[in-house]
Amino acid sequence: xxxxxxxxxxxxxxxxxxxxxxxxxxxxxxxxxxxxxxxxxxxxxxxxxxxxxxxxxxxxxxxxxxxxxxxxxxxxxxxxxxxxx
Length: 85
Prior knowledge:
Helix content: 55-70%
Protein name: Zinc finger protein 706
Keywords: Cytoplasm, Metal-binding, Nucleus, Repressor, Translation regulation, Zinc, Zinc-finger
Strand order of the largest sheet: 1-2
Domain C2H2-type: 48-70
Radius of gyration: 28 Å
Distance between the termini: 79 Å
Domain Small EDRK-rich factor-like N-terminal: 10-46
Region (Disordered): 1-40, 59-85
């Protein structure tokens, strides 16, 4: 009787290893297809681009602060007129 119990646990162990390998392969494929999630999110967050130096900013407040400090002689773009820095 102990012989059959041993055999069953070995079979289940083998299934477990196969399942882990299959899952690891699936996860690796999903990661490749997905790409770098953090990089993609960071790029999506940069929605404002400075017309003078082409720097990218995440929000209008930061954009206005950048524009006022880096390009004080240039006229303020119309999209920054009502923004408070």
